[in-house]
Design goal:
Layout lengths: L1 H9 L1 H20 L21 E2 L4 E4 L2 H14 L3 E4 L3 H16 L2 H22 L4 E2 L10 E6 L2 E6 L4 E2 L3 H11 L6 H11 L4 E3 L1 H13 L4 E5 L4 E3 L7 H16 L4 H29 L1 H4 L2 H24 L11 H9 L2 H15 L6 H18 L6 H27 L7 H14 L2 H12 L4 H7 L5 H9 L1 H20 L4 H10 L27 H21 L4 H9 L7 H10 L18 H16 L7 H17 L10 H18 L9
Helix pairs in contact: 2-10, 2-12, 4-5, 4-7, 6-7, 10-14, 12-14, 13-14, 14-15, 15-16, 16-17, 20-21, 21-22, 21-26, 21-28, 22-24, 22-26, 23-24, 23-25, 26-27, 26-28, 27-28
Protein name: HDIG domain-containing protein
Pfam family, one: HD
Keywords: Membrane, Transmembrane, Transmembrane helix
């Protein structure tokens, strides 16, 4: 049992990767659509390159979007609106009008003409309200049919038969004139104007309800293709009705409700393909990025980003497929490049795009556009912490999307008439969303404890609190750190290492000297040496302790682990040679282990560069009358000694790169000491 526990403990990192691999695969498969995948590409406007295709089952032909839009427009145009007719208004108006006759006409007139006037008024009111009086302004054509609702009954009439309030004056004038009541025109108009009121209103709710019901009943299919029918022959051009039938077959195939057995097989297929893609990513890291592969936090970070992009794309596709390019997929390579390197960023981006090909329609077009955009992202964004670079890169990414989409449309349609301008807007919005990468990187740094170039830029600010404290307490050390930072940055640039990381590591590598600054020669301003009162062993311990104290100060001030690595490794396992030699003179049996730094030795190119630059810069202060030859020999001697001690064995730096670093250090030191070329006599 104990052996099993020991094996489990030793292989816990491997078990975690297996768990992460399985969990990521399950989550991605869960997010993928579970229908069957149509196995043919449909090349619109091109010859059918496969064998003759026959219908595997009965299916309906889908109408095109244009056909459905035209049908909806026809229904909307021909829809008959509803109007409410108030049946109580005519009776009320008749009574009010007859009362108004008594009030408006003088008694002398009524004594003679009351009967015929009352009859005329009553008959006119009946004619006005035969189809009702509408207050609204004219909104329909005169021949448009409408439904007039009287109670529970609806009658279909022409819209022009409903009297409009704007027409009432002319209508009444004609009626008065035609019936021979012109002599009473003024009085009769006053009677009608004081009593007549609208009784027809537009019933918007019922009209819209009926219209929506008709729109909902639109059939999205036309005709049936029977099983066994030939759909298309090899070599036929995919266009017109052939294209619609193929598109219908694909939609039917991918939307079928599969039996449990078929569903399980589809699930197995998806699982194998997703697992295979993720396995390729793990194998790539194990082969070419072993340091990342062995770091479970970094592997988790990469897999989390893949899941995040798949989930985001799935949500957008489910919401509206037209917005699929709004998803800022180029954030993925940008983020991974900021934390790791361009090659890993691009490889992960390609794997993610391959997985997303299962989700989106027109998968080939989508994958082509996204892979090209990812390559442009990797090639254009060199320094993410410079805002101008990011904006320029976003513009280039958007331009590539537009150009590629234009080319695909021309290939598929044969012209540009069917190009959708709104797609360009989605490219623009996706480009703007890519700018979110900077705050996202900040969030990732806090969650996963990693450091990007943007954080390194902030740390390189010499006005930061910690570096200001170093400048006050140990000004000599601060000046030494600045010189080392300049040397390390130049050397890193020469061998294509991370120059920003090397510079930041150099600025902070000696912060442990703030504890006892006067025990280090660069901070001694008087002739009194603090080591004179100590034994060589005690002096060596104080010197060695600046590494341990530096790590403590760095952790207290929340410096990233990548920066702390420079503090930990900048002396490797070398010895404090001066005090060891001094102890050796007094005691021949002195052990070098008592004077040795605890290590570890450098384990990256950047930390190896710092070790070389730190040793060379510190020792260069001892040169009394430096010459070009003396500096060359001096640099060779120091770095060769470090190589002999095996200080660079774990740092993945080549002999050629070490020679390039030597060359840079020699040139920089000569510039510092203002040496001229030595001409022969």
């Amino acid at each position: 049992m104990s052996d099993f526990i020991n094996k489990l403990y030793k292989n816990q990192a491997l078990f975690y990767k297996v768990f992460l691999f399985v969990l990521t695969s399950v989550l991605i498969v869960y997010l993928l659509p579970k229908g069957g995948k149509f196995k043919y590409d449909i090349p619109k406007g091109k010859p059918w390159q496969y064998e003759n295709l026959y219908a595997p089952f009965d299916f309906a032909i889908l109408k095109t979007d244009e056909e459905i839009a035209a049908e909806r427009q026809d229904i909307t145009r021909s829809h008959i609106p509803y109007y409410n007719f108030n049946t109580q208004t005519p009776e009320k108006v008749r009574e009010d009008a007859l009362e108004e006759v008594q009030n408006v006409f003088p008694d002398t007139t009524l004594n003679v003409y009351q009967t015929i006037i009352d009859e005329f008024v009553a008959e006119t009111v009946d004619r006005i309200y035969e189809f009702g009086l509408l207050q609204e302004s004219e909104r329909l054509g005169p021949d448009q049919l409408v439904y007039l609702l009287k109670g529970n009954e609806a009658s279909e009439i022409a819209y022009r038969r409903i009297l409009k309030q704007g027409e009432i004056r002319g209508y009444l004038a004609d009626e008065i004139s035609n019936e021979g009541f012109s002599s009473f025109r003024t009085e009769l108009l006053e009677v009608f104007f004081n009593s007549v009121e609208p009784n027809v209103t537009f019933n918007n709710d019922l009209t819209q309800k009926e219209l929506q019901s008709k729109l909902n009943n639109i059939s999205y299919t036309r005709g049936i293709i029977e099983q066994g029918s030939r759909i298309i022959a090899k070599g036929e051009v995919v266009e017109g009705n052939k294209y619609n039938i193929l598109r219908s077959l694909k939609a039917e195939y991918e939307s079928q409700v599969w039996s449990k057995s078929n569903y399980n097989w589809i699930l197995l297929g998806y699982s194998v393909l997703v697992a295979l893609a993720l396995l390729m990513l793990l194998l790539f890291m194990r082969k070419y990025r072993i340091a990342i592969f062995e770091n479970n936090v970094k592997v988790t970070f990469i897999f989390f980003n893949i899941i995040f992009m798949v989930m985001l794309t799935t949500l957008v596709v489910n919401f509206n497929i037209d917005y699929v390019y709004v998803v800022p997929l180029c954030i993925l390579p940008l983020t991974l490049k900021a934390f790791f390197d361009a090659r890993l960023g691009l490889f992960t981006h390609v794997i993610t795009v391959l997985l997303l090909g299962f989700i989106v329609p027109n998968s080939y077009e989508y994958m082509f556009l996204q892979i090209i955009a990812g390559i442009v992202t990797i090639l254009t964004v060199s320094e993410l912490y410079k805002r101008a670079n990011l904006f320029i890169s976003v513009g280039q990414i958007t331009l590539v999307y537009i150009i590629a989409y234009f080319a695909f449309t021309v290939i598929q349609e044969g012209d540009i008439d069917d190009m959708k301008p709104e797609v360009f807007l989605t490219f623009f919005l996706g480009g703007l969303a890519t700018l979110f990468v900077q705050p996202l990187i900040y969030v990732y740094e806090k969650i996963f404890g990693m450091v990007s170039d943007m954080s390194l830029l902030e740390l390189s600010d010499t006005n930061s609190r910690l570096l200001k404290e170093l400048a006050e307490k140990a000004p000599g050390t601060f000046h030494h750190s600045l010189n080392v930072a300049n040397l390390a940055e130049a050397a890193a640039n020469e061998i294509n290492a991370n120059a920003m990381l090397a510079r930041v590591g150099a600025l902070y590598h000696d912060i442990g000297k703030m504890e006892n600054p006067t025990y280090f020669t660069e901070n001694q301003t008087t002739s009194v040496n603090s080591h004179d009162e100590l034994s060589p062993k005690e002096s060596a311990q104080i010197i060695i302790e600046h590494v341990i104290k530096g790590i403590e100060v760095a952790k207290k001030n929340n410096l990233p682990d990548r920066v702390i690595d420079f503090i930990r490794t900048h002396h490797g396992t070398s010895t404090v040679y001066y005090f060891y030699k001094k102890e050796k003179e007094a005691n021949e049996n002195a052990s070098p282990e008592d004077f040795r730094y605890p290590g570890p030795i450098p384990f990256s190119k950047e930390t190896a560069i710092l070790m070389m630059c730190d040793s060379v810069e510190a020792a260069s202060k001892s040169l009394k009358e430096p010459t070009s030859v003396l500096i060359d020999n001096f640099v060779e001697k120091i770095i060769n000694k470090q190589m002999e001690e095996g200080q660079f064995l774990n740092s993945n730096i080549t002999f050629k790169e070490i020679q390039m670093v030597k060359k840079i250090l020699k040139r920089k030191l000569k510039n510092i000491y203002h040496l001229r070329i030595e001409y022969p006599e």
